[in-house]
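Schema walk-through. Below, the input block comes first and the output block second. Nothing else is stored per chain. Lengths vary across the set, and this one has 193 residues.
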Amino acid sequence: MKTNISNTTHEFRIGELPGDEQCLFSSAIYLFDRSETINIKSLRKKVADFIRQSKYIDDIPLLLGTDCQTREDYCHKIEEGTILGSEEELCALADLYPNIFFCVISKANINENGFFIDINTYVKDISSYKKCIIIVYDMAANAYIPLYLYDKINQEEEKTKFKYNDIVKKLLEEFIQKTFNCKKNKMRDRINL
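--- output ---
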C-alpha cells in the first residue's frame, strides 16, 4: 500500500477504457490487478450468481423500479448488461472481492443549472481491504469512468494500492472540484458496509 501520498505529489486522473463500453464492470476490470483477470461477461455472471443465491437481499427493493418480475429476471438482465450499476451489484462486488474497497462518485444533474455529487463506498470489512477502486458515475451520460492515482514526481500511475484515508479524500475532493467545477457543499460521503 502506498503511504507517502500527498496533494503536492499525487492527483487523480481518468482512466481510458478500451472500446466504448463504459459500464461499472469494465471500469472495475480496468482497475483490477493481473491476479484478478476476468472479462466483463464472466464478472456479470459472477455478480448475478451471487445475487441469485443471497439470502440477505430482499426481492421487493431489488425489483422496485425495474420491469423484472422475479429475482431470476433481474439476474438475467445483469448478465445481459441491461441492468447496470445497481446498489445490489455494488454490494455483491464488495462481497465477492472482500480485499477491495469500492468507491463510486455519482454525478447527478438536478436541473440545467445544477448537479449533486454523491460518494458511496462499498466494502465487506473496512479493516481488512488491500486495494481501493474508485469509479465516477455520470448519471446524465450513463457512463462509469475509472480513476487512478497518479504520482506526479515519478510519473507513474497507481491504480488500486492505496488506503481510502483523509489524504485520498482530499485528493478526490480536489479532482471533483476541478473536473466538475463543484463546491464542497454539493458533496455527500457515505460508507456502505
